[in-house]
Amino acid sequence: MARSTYHALIAALFFAASAHAQQAFNINGYLTARGVNASGPPSWLEHGFGRLEAGGDRNEFFADAHVGADWNPVSWFAAHASGLARREPSGFAGKRAGLVDAYVELHNEHWQLRAGQFFLGTSRENTGPLWSSPYTLSFSALNTWIGEEVRPVGVDLQWKPNFYVTAGATAFRNNDTAGALLAWRGWTVGNRLTVYNEVLPLPPLFSFSTGFVDQRSDGTVPFETDLDKRTGYAGRVRVQLPERANLQLTHFDNRGDREEYRGEYAWQTRFDVLGGQVGVTSPTTLAAEYLRGKTGMGAPPIFVDADISAWYVLVSHKMGHERFSARFDGFATEDRDHAPAETNTEHGHSWCFAWLHDLNDRARLGAEFVQVTGDRIAAAQSGFNPNTDGHTVTLELRYSF
Fold it and tell me: What pTM was computed for the model?
């Protein structure tokens, strides 16, 4: 999608905001403050090899404000946009504020046409408002990556002929670098959403410092103006028993041409996600997803070809004002290129235990323990400790509106 089209979508948001006095306009969101005690290597947000958003054996404080705006002037039209602002440690890279998603939508009983930047709706975990999780504070490794690198700008058409089947197809651009984080940084666990045109840091790989790989020095940009001018596509099919269970298969292919533009590569990334959920509205919920695919860039001798995979199983139980959740993850990247640069192969696991307590209808108190294990061969090849094990203990207060 051209830059002018994207700017038009942002203009649509401001137009919606001017209609605040109208009943059809709604603002929602949440304010979050959390303290984190962390162990392990320095965070990847500090250009380190840590897999968690906090690291370095210290305490950190984070705060977020994520606000969404929805305008529904008539039954068949809607406009949506959301943005966030965050407080992070001063040594962290990345933007402190920006646009998360923005789109317009036409819909009726059976069809939905959406245009803009949006989440593809693959997640069985991030089912809360503004792509949040109602079960845990952090996301699985699979959905942490989706929140970081997969949010295309394009057009999506969805068809729902009855209560039991939904099918959708998407054509998109502006998501050319998806895969760069997995190959050069590795899988991580957190809940940080990348905003539009945000530069995310990469670790100090040997091939970057020697100039063997021509990568822009400040990092990678997951969502920016399209690099290779090629249109990617995605498709999905979901079957469901309303309010009981669902099963969904999604395919994604950004059709990157693997060439370099402005110090970044258009990665060729494709994957499939199979996800399901049982007990959608019941007190006890079981959710699981499995992702498998490939990513790559460049051509010999400077190139990357890697297989990627991740999965998780989550169980959650709601009892009065309390919710108890547990999640177990697995993730892997298999290096297939055997190029002279670093080896991208890695395998790891993560487990999470979370407790959420509803103070009232709007305020929530949460506590969570996350442990991540796994070695990073590329860290050892770049002169660092390959052990990326770490854990976080998080206390969070959230106010929703």
Answer: 0.93
